[in-house]
Write a structure and sequence with these properties.
This protein has 150 residues and is mainly alpha-helical. It has one domain: Alpha Horseshoe (Serine Threonine Protein Phosphatase 5, Tetratricopeptide repeat), CATH 1.25.40. It is 65% helix and 0% strand. The protein is built from 6 helices and no strands.
Length: 150
């Protein structure tokens, strides 16, 4: 694996993790056992938009010179899905599958993107089931998914 690819994937991951760490640190001590009650503030919203935009830009830039890279396709798919661009995410994730991905997160993220795009619950379930049979690549991550929202 190209070191530049790994460096940018790790940098994008740090940007995403920074958002969730900021959110967790904003929790009041009495809400730690009920994280769903923690506030989402304007400053967190700004950080979310800024960091997701930066992560997306990093990954898109690297994908230009590595358009078949499964890891880049998988993590950019996660970022796009988290941003609500589910159709674009699904296209990239399907390409990762076509390129031979055996990463659990490729299939999980495709399930998330398909379900959230409204393309069909049966198709999404197929991808979630496939994901459950695989191991995750250590450098990839899952798109955000709230099963209670569906």
């Amino acid at each position: 694996m190209n070191n530049k690819i790994l460096d940018e994937v790790r940098q994008a991951r740090r940007l995403i993790e920074e958002i969730w760490e900021a959110w967790r640190s904003s929790e009041s001590s009495d809400s730690l056992d009920r994280p769903w009650t923690c506030p989402w503030t304007d400053s967190l919203d700004r950080l979310w938009h800024q960091n997701y935009s930066r992560a997306r830009s990093l990954l898109e830039h690297r994908l230009v010179s590595n358009p078949e890279n499964i890891l880049l396709l998988t993590v950019l798919g996660a970022v796009l899905s988290d941003q609500g661009n589910h159709d674009d995410a699904a296209k990239l994730l399907r390409k990762a599958v076509e390129n031979g991905s055996n990463d659990r997160n490729t299939f999980f993220n495709l399930g998330v993107a398909v379900l959230n795009s409204g393309a069909g619950e049966k198709d999404a379930i197929k991808w979630f089931k496939k994901a459950s049979t695989l191991d995750a690549h250590p450098e990839s991550w899952e798109a955000y998914f709230d099963p209670h929202a569906h």
